[in-house]
């Protein structure tokens, strides 16, 4: 297989060799780690009874927020103009797939909605201003418009709705999420329609989940925060049918043997758990245990995953 290596601004083709640049720190991976850390700390602020641990969580989350979103020397720019750019492209510019890179920012939105009252309010306001700048860029830039008008604009709408929920409240996010979801449903009324494009790819299982995940998130935003049980029965039925459909998707040519059934079904089980919570059903296995075995989870059945499973 040919791979390209970018060295000193030039593209050099090397057959059968891994790009050494892949070992360098990546902004997308750093943003994912940051977002997960902030979300975990927010859960600690909200639920840990120990006042010392709670205070340490507050101090840590405030430091991370300042470094990544406020301090001029280290902060991330809200306008991700070069995200997903192609090496060697002239002029250098990003494309509509920037939503893939920034999707984990919704965890920051969720975290501050959860525990923002415990954080210094001037800092929360600065984060809101940063998020608002990104919303404006997403809604007005050519890059943002391409993402909005893409064949599958799900992640674009999810990110925008979560951002609006954080900075403007439920009304704004519900309006956007509801209209976006119904527009999607009108074009994709059956599970076969939802995943038709995904099944064309060699990594079809990955593509199906990458379509289903934002669809579930978008549905959750059609109702006020923490009121998912009040969601439309039609939406719940639609999502349940989609989850059942992806269970039948076979491995794509490049997914075997790495994408085994255990790992794939573990991710499907996570989505099923969410839907069960929305309809008020908490099924236990034969041994009376709510928790799954965790077999197949990425990085194992860690303490964080156990905690998150319990919150669903």
From TrEMBL:
<protein>
    <recommendedName>
        <fullName>Alginate lyase domain-containing protein</fullName>
    </recommendedName>
</protein>
<keyword id="KW-0456">Lyase</keyword>
<dbReference type="Pfam" id="PF05426">
    <property type="entry name" value="Alginate_lyase"/>
</dbReference>
<dbReference type="GO" id="GO:0042597">
    <property type="term" value="C:periplasmic space"/>
</dbReference>
<feature type="domain" description="Alginate lyase">
    <location>
        <begin position="14"/>
        <end position="151"/>
    </location>
</feature>
<dbReference type="InterPro" id="IPR008929">
    <property type="entry name" value="Chondroitin_lyas"/>
</dbReference>
<dbReference type="InterPro" id="IPR008397">
    <property type="entry name" value="Alginate_lyase_dom"/>
</dbReference>
<dbReference type="GO" id="GO:0016829">
    <property type="term" value="F:lyase activity"/>
</dbReference>
<keyword id="KW-0732">Signal</keyword>
């Amino acid at each position: 297989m040919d791979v390209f290596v970018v060295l000193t601004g030039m593209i050099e083709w090397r057959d059968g060799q891994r790009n050494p640049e892949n070992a360098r720190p990546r902004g997308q991976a750093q943003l994912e780690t940051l977002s997960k850390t902030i979300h975990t700390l927010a859960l600690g602020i909200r639920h840990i009874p120990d006042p010392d641990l709670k205070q340490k969580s507050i101090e840590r989350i405030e430091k991370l927020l300042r470094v990544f979103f406020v301090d001029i020397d280290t902060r991330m720019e809200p306008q991700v103009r070069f995200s997903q750019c192609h090496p060697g492209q002239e002029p250098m510019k990003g494309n509509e797939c920037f939503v893939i890179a920034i999707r984990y920012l919704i965890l920051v939105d969720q975290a501050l909605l959860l525990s923002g009252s415990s954080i210094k309010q001037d800092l929360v306001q600065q984060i809101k201003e940063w998020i608002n700048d990104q919303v404006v860029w997403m809604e007005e830039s050519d890059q943002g418009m391409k993402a909005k008008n893409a064949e599958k604009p799900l992640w674009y709408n999810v990110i925008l709705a979560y951002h609006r929920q954080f900075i403007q409240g439920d009304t704004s996010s519900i309006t956007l999420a509801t209209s976006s979801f119904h527009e999607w449903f009108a074009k994709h009324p059956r599970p076969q329609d939802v995943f038709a494009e995904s099944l064309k790819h060699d990594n079809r299982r990955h593509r199906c989940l990458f379509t289903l995940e934002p669809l579930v998130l978008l549905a959750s935003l059609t109702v006020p925060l923490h009121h998912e049980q009040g969601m439309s029965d039609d939406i719940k039925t639609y999502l349940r049918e989609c989850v059942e459909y992806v269970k039948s998707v076979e491995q794509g040519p490049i997914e075997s043997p790495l994408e085994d059934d255990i790992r794939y079904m573990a991710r499907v089980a996570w989505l099923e758990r969410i839907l069960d919570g929305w309809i008020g059903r908490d099924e236990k296995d034969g041994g009376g245990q709510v928790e799954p075995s965790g077999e197949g989870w990425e990085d194992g059945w860690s303490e964080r995953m156990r905690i998150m499973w319990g919150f669903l």
